[in-house]
Amino acid sequence: MSSEAHVVGKIALVCFLLFGPSAIAGQWETIATMPGLEYLPESAHRIGDRVYLIHRNTPREGAANFVIADDLDCQNQALRISWANGSLGKVTGRYYNNGKSQDRYASVDFKAADTDQVFYDWACKLPLQPERLVNVRTEQEGALTQVDISSVKRIGAVATLWMRHDYPTINFDPPYNAPFDSKREFVRLNCDTSRYSTLVGYDFMPDGTVTDGMIAPEEDTALTPSDSYAAAKEIACNTSMDLKSFAGIGGITSRPKPPLPPKRGIEDVAIPTEIAKTVARLLSILPDEPVVSEAKITQTSKSSLVQTSKQVIVVIKPKKDGTTRVQEIYDRGVSVDREVLGPVQLKSKMNSNMAEPSDVTLTTSLTVNSGTWAAGQELSFEIEMPATAGPKKFEMSCKIGEPIEANTIHRSLAGHAWPLECDRKGDSKMRGYYVGQLRYFFVAHSESSLGRSDSTIDGIEIGR
């Protein structure tokens, strides 16, 4: 296989469904040694032995097209695809992890392949000056504005250069939840009109990993004195400045950052002490029946939103402290871990082999407004959880029905089950059974603004 074919083949999974880029502006140039591929010259940037650039296939009408951000380790002849945008007709999306993770950041390792030699030889020999950063300004909240002095070029009234914005901590960029500690941008300045635009941008982590980026040039914008780009204009548009000796405001350019907290499993996070008493009270209300050590429910769920049926496996493990650990296993490697107490969720965590795992969502406030578990009684409670836009609160009330033999729900069950009809105020309704043997609320029917969903049990495996 030729090198150019191998590079294209690496993202074949992406190209097969390639759901990708919006219209891309910029002057693309053909890669002479690799027919059918083009690159964006202003995207090419060298940092030490690493070269970063954007390449694409020559666009074809009605066919799958792709745009790829490359990170090349020239010393070790290794390559990784930071991300890939792709398109097939009107269907678009971004892929990470060599096409395995859609529209959510996932890390990927360098890979070396002899078949990529032509690509290495071309990219690593591009006439790029190694980056030389200088600090030029300190912004509000501790950000540093930096200029790559070796990249400054001026033709007539137009100057171009690479800039870096160094932030005090690692943050996350929507919509892909991509982590970054700094951003590099290729900027065009008009020295006469004092206007600028960003042509290319990369999000970086401290180790040089690119996690996100933009390749659609922004509109020209007027500079203001408070704008960080105004500091770049003072350098790039000053024809009398000796750039070789320019040192800026001094100081280190790559500041150490506090590391991201370790990825946590649901078992790594304790129930907040603030709600421990309420959890104990709720536990005292729930019916006390002999429980199994583990159960696996295979159920079929049908949603009115998508008009399709899906099989879900639910693994249930009652714990000694009275709570229940639940794992819902969906298709395509997606699962959700929960810790529940009756109809109340205490913790949850989403897992996926298509994306970086999320953190644990924790109930931080819980109020129970009922005192007995009996037919005709109502169990009501209020919950608060953290969310991106601020704490999320909701109220729920569940009407308890007459207990039934649990084996009427499924022959594998023993003991009793209590019908529950729950109303989540202003949000949704649920109907199902609290099964004492499992310490688990099986939701058979739910309704919300997203439509209706019905679940039926196909089988239950009990471990005693």
TrEMBL record:
This is Surface-adhesin protein E-like domain-containing protein. It comes from the Bacteria. The lineage of its organism: Bacteria, Pseudomonadati, Pseudomonadota, Alphaproteobacteria, Hyphomicrobiales. Residues 137-238 form the Surface-adhesin protein E-like domain.
